[in-house]
Write a structure and sequence with these properties.
Elements (H helix, E strand, L loop, with lengths): L14 H17 L17 E6 L3 E7 L9 E5 L3 E8 L18 E8 L10 E5 L2 E7 L15
Antiparallel strand pairs: 1-2, 2-7, 3-4, 4-5, 6-7
Length: 154
């Protein structure tokens, strides 16, 4: 006798996908222990981690990009409402394939675009790279500056 399962109309529609991902992770752990790959994990290693904050007059982005050989290995593009970082991290050695014992570091091209909280002046943006940290300063446009006006009550 087969066990009949009634379909719950309020069940999570992605529950089966989540279960499949968990099963794939367990299988991967068995096949390649210690490799570090996780199904469904974000590709964080391929994109710089970034903090963005704003002051009264500017928006500042601080990105971690360790391993750049020079500041010319990163391209910064600013529009009125977005910031894009592109570049390439190069391996400092030529060893590949079977000679690698353990590899965790990311090498290769990266690209990341983020929206900005307010409108900025792209032509006045500046960027500095030092000790693996890229800092981008973007002055706010007049539209992006928050103004406070006291309104009299009559």
């Amino acid at each position: 006798m087969a066990l009949m399962r009634r379909r719950d109309p309020f069940r999570d529609p992605f529950g089966e996908i989540t279960t499949l991902r968990e099963q794939m992770n367990r299988l991967w752990d068995v096949l390649r222990p210690g490799f570090g790959f996780r199904w469904g994990a974000p590709i964080e290693a391929a994109t710089p981690r970034m903090d963005i904050y704003q002051t009264e007059n500017e928006v500042v982005a601080v990105a971690e990009i360790p391993g750049l050989e020079s500041k010319d290995d990163v391209e910064v593009t600013v529009t009125e409402d977005s910031l894009t970082l592109r570049g390439e991290l190069k391996r400092g050695y030529e060893q590949q394939g079977e000679g690698i014992y353990h590899a965790e570091r990311y090498y290769g091209s990266f690209s990341r675009t983020v929206g900005l909280p307010v409108e900025v002046k792209p032509e006045e943006a500046t960027a500095n790279y030092r000790n693996g940290i890229l800092e981008i300063r973007m002055p706010k446009s007049e539209a992006g500056k928050r103004r406070s006006v006291r309104v009299p009550v009559h």
